[in-house]
């Protein structure tokens, strides 16, 4: 049983809990997820099964898309609806659609974020949420992330001194959408937090492909799990693809350092090497030899069980 299962993660459990449950249902140990979702967040969580666990690091870096709801009027310790209130400011007047869309446009592109205290980022060997649970606030470096698309998806609800609206965002790895909700509030002049979030896409995996844990159990009982597993070769479709000849294939299987073909027009961190519709390896640009590429992971070769 090898491939990627697109799970619709339920609310209230961690991504690690999902891995544990999938292991139990499928009766296999080789299971890994491709990017943590907070317990209260639902939606697309690609789960790698069997030999596909070799792909985890490549799928983790892919672009993600979410539908979130931001609430203006108060901020929280966790930057989402689960935290304690930190700051309050009543939203006395409605905010126009034009003003909100202007702010969303301001946050599109490359921006900086400071990881929230309630996150798994490590500082001095300790996770930030561990400091936060001790009541400590630690200085942490900002990081650059990319917001590819950010737009309003709902009506604007103004009631009881708060204002709510939903947005859809496509973003790079490392983006904290709850921090984005706080940034939206700051630009609109109010403390804010993320009140709902669902991941609707992770790379090529979409929410309409996703199945629940209950549906997975039913498929296992009926012996139809394979029908829902995305083949490993297809999972790499988001990477640039280089098709090679028989001669070069043998060199790739031996992990050779090779010249980058001159006709390649893309600039990517990794690219897949295919031969006869089979992915032999994932290569990367050589860090110290311009114009050359080196293997990151060989799937079909002397030292591989892929």
From TrEMBL:
Active site positions, chain numbering: 38
| EC number of the protein | 5.4.99.25
Q: Which domain of life is it from?
A: Bacteria
Q: Where is the tRNA pseudouridylate synthase B C-terminal domain?
A: 178-236
List the catalysed reactions: uridine(55) in tRNA = pseudouridine(55) in tRNA
Q: Which UniProt keywords apply?
A: Isomerase, tRNA processing
Could you cite one Gene Ontology molecular function of this protein? tRNA pseudouridine(55) synthase activity
Spell out the coiled coil positions from the record. Answer: none
Q: InterPro entries given for it?
A: PsdUridine_synth_cat_dom_sf, PsdUridine_synth_N, tRNA_psdUridine_synth_TruB, TruB_C
- Please list the residue ranges annotated as the Pseudouridine synthase II N-terminal domain: 23-177
| Classification via SUPFAM superfamilies | Pseudouridine synthase (SSF55120)
- Family according to the record: Belongs to the pseudouridine synthase TruB family. Type 1 subfamily.
The protein's job, in short, is: Responsible for synthesis of pseudouridine from uracil-55 in the psi GC loop of transfer RNAs.
Q: What is this protein called?
A: tRNA pseudouridine synthase B
- Which species is listed as the source? Sutcliffiella tianshenii
